[in-house]
Write a structure and sequence with these properties.
The chain is an all-alpha fold. About 75% of the residues lie in helices and about 0% in strands. It has a single domain, classed as Rhopdopsin 7-helix transmembrane proteins (Up-down Bundle). The longest helix has about 30 residues. The radius of gyration is 18 Å and the shape is globular. The two termini are about 15 Å apart.
Length: about 220
């Protein structure tokens, strides 16, 4: 069994890694794909010129995306396991967050492996994989935040995390409405995808701040 203080010390840095590594990977991948001419030059966060998936289908970016995102998937899983164990010290029943994390991890790996492959089955795998990855990662962020609020842990980031989670939810609902209301919604869909990915990883940055702060204020989590 991992000692609480070891879990506590590690989790903040794993959260920081998840704020930096996936964001860096997808943006570097875009630069590689654009430099090789597979996607246009633009600012995808508002130009909506290409999807994240399109940047990893061909050329050097095809190999870069797979070689970075598959290891990162296991970093996600490591983080959710550490979060489960850290919260277990305060009477949370472990494994719920880990189990959801396993689903998100497997979904991300399936999506990554299917990227660039031709055929309807691979297209379906990519679509299901990316939806499950984003959905369960977001749900786990909410669940961890709920446990922090429930136990009244001295986490200075929790209000910002809540605001960011609500913003992500609002954008998600907005995309559904726009998809129904606008005939040309596809012109904006990619920008929303890039933005949601960035916001989800910003939440890990806030979590890094929160875990570091609670390590000093909560005896149970030191």
């Amino acid at each position: 069994m991992v000692k609480p203080q070891i879990v506590r010390r590690d989790i903040a840095w794993v959260a920081l890694a998840l704020a930096i590594l996936p964001t860096a990977a997808i943006n570097i991948n875009y630069l590689i794909a654009a430099s090789e001419g597979y996607v246009p030059w633009c600012v995808p966060y508002w130009d909506s010129c290409t999807s994240i998936s399109a940047t990893g289908r061909e050329g050097t970016a095809f190999f870069f995306f797979k070689s970075t995102m598959i290891p990162i998937a296991f970093v996600y899983l490591w983080y959710w396991k550490l979060a489960d164990r850290a919260l277990a010290v305060t009477d949370h029943s472990p494994r719920i967050i880990t189990n959801l994390g396993i689903i998100a991890c497997v979904a991300l790996i399936c999506y990554t492996l299917a990227l660039g492959a031709v055929g309807d089955n691979f297209r379906t795998t990519r679509r299901i994989g990316v939806i499950l990855y984003f959905t369960f990662t977001y749900l786990n962020q909410l669940l961890v935040l709920y446990q922090i609020y429930k136990r009244e842990l001295a986490d200075p980031s929790r209000q910002l995390q809540l605001a960011l989670c609500l913003l992500i939810l609002a954008i998600g609902v907005l995309t559904l409405l726009l998809d129904v209301l606008l005939d040309n919604y596809d012109d904006y869909d990619d920008a929303f995808e890039w933005t949601l990915a960035l916001l989800i990883h910003m939440n890990f940055l806030l979590a890094w701040w929160g875990w570091r702060a609670t390590a000093h204020s909560s005896p149970l989590l030191r």
